[in-house]
Amino acid sequence: MLCVRFSSIGDVLLTTPLLRALQHRHPDARVCFVTKRAHVPLVSDNPHVHEVVALEPGESIRSLARRLRAWQPTDGLDLHGSLRSLALRLLVRCRWSGYAKRKPARTALIAAKLDFYGHHVPVAERYFAATRRLDVYPDGGSPEFFLGAAARQRVQEWLAARGLEGRPFTALAPGAAHATKRWPLPHWRALAERLRDLGQRVVAVGSAADRDAAAALAPLAENAAGDFSLQETGGLLARAAVVVSGDTGVMHMATGVGTPVVALFGPTVEAFGFFPYASRALVLERDLGCRPCSAMGSARCPLGHHRCLVDILPDEVLAAVGRLVA
């Protein structure tokens, strides 16, 4: 059986409840997960996946299809719903099924603030529309991010070198791919200061693109942004007492390793389906008439004030952290 989700970090991890339920319902099924090369580590150690096939950088869908046909799949689950995955469905003949991305409802909510979603169903559960014919349904469990031994070892060594081995710390993720998803850096710094004043250690996490944002928290926080692979970042998040993040991949990685999350939502909203799923989490947001303003964030606030995140103050986030670690 093929499960196709090319990107991105959060979307791939949100398929893992389906992978778990699928394996439990059909233990003899052999599951091949198809994703971009960069996202392979998110599922490479998942025990519910038998093989991961990577779409290599620059590789054509025709080439990928040729490799997948050798698998002789009987079923295919299109969990991406893109032109690329549609092409794959045409090139690899088997019983395909997919799910509704609900783009018209999303567009109406952004453009006219009209909510046609009705009941807000998380994306992790929307994926299960593809498995109804297989009698597979959500089990209520959270996403899973399985880590290899090498990643755990690297994190242990990094923490030991900084005197953090065996000590609780808070992980902060100040970066995001789009500017409107980023909590203001002065707020991040104020939060780090308050945590330090309470005697707590802080580690800033993220990708190489987030290194400058994380560096702005020095010397209040250890900077791990860009130093770790995906699995190593997951290993670091697994050792944190709590994670503070925006609506980013880091948030979903934290839920996947079982760490409590304080999630800061600005331009995006619950109806889109990407709130922390079935996890110990607190979501902080502001009820503003201008939200949502985009599907995935944008380069600037359309109204110029960015109140959706500016108005979430450090003391409120600190209180949420306290509730999760109490």
Explain how this protein is built:
The protein is of the alpha/beta class and 326 residues long. The protein folds into 2 domains: 2-134, Glycogen Phosphorylase B (Rossmann fold, 3-Layer(aba) Sandwich), CATH 3.40.50; 149-325, 3-Layer(aba) Sandwich (Rossmann fold). The protein contains 13 helices and 11 strands. It has helices at residues 9-13, 16-25, 61-69, 83-91, 103-112, 123-126, 149-161, 185-197, 211-215, 230-239, 249-256, 307-310, 314-325; strands at residues 2-4, 32-36, 51-55, 75-78, 95-97, 169-173, 201-204, 222-223, 242-246, 261-264, 281-284. The strands form 2 sheets. It has a 6-stranded parallel β-sheet with strand order 8-7-6-9-10-11, sandwiched between helices. Strands 3-2-1-4-5 form a 5-stranded parallel β-sheet, with helices on one face. Helix 11 (249-256) links the parallel strand 9 (242-246) and strand 10. Helix 10 (230-239) packs across helix 11. The longest helix is centred in the middle third of the chain and has 13 residues, at 149-161. It is globular. It starts with a strand and ends with a helix.
